[in-house]
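Our consortium's second objective concerns turning raw sequence data into structural hypotheses that experimental partners can test. To show how far this objective has progressed, the report includes one record in full. It was chosen at random from the queue rather than selected for favorable results. The single chain below, 208 residues long, was entered without modification.
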Amino acid sequence: MTNTLDNSGFEELFGGATLMAILRGMGAERSLAVSTTAWDLGIDVVELPIQSESDIEALRVVAAAGRERGKIVGAGTVVSTEHVAQAADAGAAFTVSPGLDLDVVRASHDAGLLSLPGVATPSEVQLALKSGLTWLKAFPASVLGTPWLSAMQGPFPQAQFVTTGGMSAANAGEYLRAGARVVAVGSALEDPAQLPLLADLLESKNRP
């Protein structure tokens, strides 16, 4: 049987980048401003959680601006097939979920969107991989901790983790060293003190 839930397209979507931005509940104007900060810094992929009508409007605005700049914008906190439809309608390129719901993954795939489901246990990782999903969101990452990432690499070397939840410029490097492929940061983008540290993380990825 051909597996239809493959999400290996995230490899190309992230393009080797180590950071993603998450902009939660900021409204359209502020979301666009912080997205621009992220894009100017070199963080090309932005996620906007959609939990209200204003969130969906913000996604629509940022996705349109992203298309103009060649940047990729996705929808987060996608926990139903209705959310998937809203994300697709607003112009999202991918969906992110806090947990592993194969109906949401399937609906995303059918809508032409990549899906990044959340996992927190070996059983969820194993089920996701069995379903054809190699890119997974480790959530909540700050609770799981870096030892969790290291432990998962033994039995599941093919899993590619995006760490979300409690990530900042202070701990992003630690999670990347522990095996995360991408770290998702949010409030750090609004903290002038953290911006140089984030920039340094991006630059260090490109150093020989």
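The partners drew two points from this record. Residues 7 and 133 are 5 Å apart (CA to CA). The chain has a mean pLDDT of 94. Both points have been shared with the crystallography group to help prioritize constructs.
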